[in-house]
Amino acid sequence: MNLFPYANKVYKIIGAAMAVHSVLGSGLLEPVYQEALHLELLDRGIDNEREIELPIYYKNHLLDKKYRMDIVIDDIIVELKSVICLVPAHRAQLCNYLRLTKKPLGLLINFGEDSLISERWAYDKTTNECYIVNRRMERLDDVEYQYLLE
């Protein structure tokens, strides 16, 4: 799967997140960063939607329970956190969103540390697998994915 066409947009999204982190610092609640990033993206001419409901089906039945994706920009899901350290459950949440939507790319961004932390995750619908990619949007083969997602 060729993800390189997304590289420039991802660069711009992470740049916007860095600007938000630079102004607000760390330690605030996630909804504050979500609103600020939404506005920063709009200021930079990047259309985005917040709090997008993700319906869940079981055997063709729509469940009452729905997920809410923080920010969606075209085919990219942006999951925000404001925690001391990312843990496997955060990565699994993003991968679940990717699997349910079949979108090819997701960003996991943590505002909770002194420096902004971001991870790029891709979804391959032919294998139903999520994996981490580098800045050039290439799969990192030397990563132990089970460790990151357990």
- What is the C-alpha radius of gyration, as a whole number of Å? 15 Å
- How many structural domains can be distinguished in the coordinates? 1
Helix content: 25-40%
Task: Report the mean per-residue pLDDT as an integer.
Answer: 94
Strand content: 25-35%
Oligomer: single chain
Physical arrangement of strands within the biggest beta sheet: 1-2-3-4-5-6
Strand/helix succession? HHEEEHEEEH
Total strands = 6
Low-confidence stretches: none
Alpha-carbon distance between the two ends? 25 Å
- Please tell me what the overall shape is: globular
Give the structural class.
alpha+beta
Number of helices: 4
Major pleated sheet? 6 strands, mixed
Keywords:
150 residues; alpha+beta; six-stranded mixed sheet; 6 strands; globular
Describe the structure.
This protein is an alpha+beta fold and 150 residues long. The chain has one domain (4-149). Helix content is 34%, strand content 32%. The chain has 4 helices and 6 strands, in the order H-H-E-E-E-H-E-E-E-H. It has helices spanning 7-24, 30-43, 88-101, 145-149, and strands at 49-58, 61-73, 76-81, 105-110, 117-124, 129-133. The longest helix has 18 residues, at 7-24. The radius of gyration is 15 Å and the shape is globular. The two termini are 25 Å apart. The mean pLDDT is 94.
What's a quick, concise take on this entry?
The chain is an alpha+beta fold. The protein has helices at residues 7-24, 30-43, 88-101, 145-149, and strands spanning 49-58, 61-73, 76-81, 105-110, 117-124, 129-133.
